[in-house]
């Protein structure tokens, strides 16, 4: 049994998708950002950084893993799925996983904040992060022109990590115009049952855009 500590965010959805794809039994613990539950001592004891997602593997002496990329690697190694054994292919998967962790996620996350939620509109910041997000999309589009998936012909944890972010490109104000190969990949993964289940685990919080903006403004201006 895997205990998953998460919320309805792209980083959280990475892990729920992976658990569904790998067929692992898991139990969801949804953290409430509106009450800063992720910063409470009970969760800090699990993840000192106070961020979701995190897991506890009850079948491995209650082993704790935090950081979404580290969790994906751990689960892939645990199950032998979605991470090739061949050293070169394995390295390619990890390279594209790191591309998401260091580039796609942070840049889109900042685009989200400055485009949607920051109390002051700063055009230079919005432009910077949207342009960098688009550039990263173009890198993926080029890769997908000759590969079915990000790391080659196999669906891997690199795709699992990246898809929950790319699918919300409109929320970041990043357009997909002309990126036909990236759009093809986006649409194909959307048909996978595990992806469909993963992005509603946990279910999104029902709130207006104004309420969501206030909540995130509180988080980003602390």
Mean pLDDT: 93
Main beta-sheet annotation: 4 strands, mixed
Uncertain spans:
218-222
> Judging from the principal axes of the Cα atoms, what is the shape?
globular
Question: What does it look like?
Answer:
Helix content is 56%, strand content 8%. It starts with a strand and ends with a helix. It is globular, with a radius of gyration of 17 Å. It is an alpha+beta fold and 222 residues long. The C terminus is likely disordered. It has a 4-stranded mixed sheet, covered by helices on one side. The relative contact order is 0.15. Strand 1, helix 1 and strand 2 form a beta-alpha-beta unit. Helix 1 runs parallel beside helix 3.
Outline the fold blueprint.
Elements: E1 2-6, H1 10-22, E2 26-30, H2 41-44, E3 54-57, E4 63-66, H3 68-79, H4 87-117, H5 123-144, H6 157-166, H7 169-172, H8 180-190, H9 193-198, H10 209-220
Parallel strand pairs: 1-2
Antiparallel strand pairs: 1-3, 3-4
Helix pairs in contact: 1-3, 1-6, 4-5, 4-6, 5-8
Task: Sum up the structure in keywords.
10 helices, globular, alpha+beta, 8% strand, 4 strands
Give a brief description:
This protein has 222 residues and is α+β, with helices and mostly antiparallel strands.
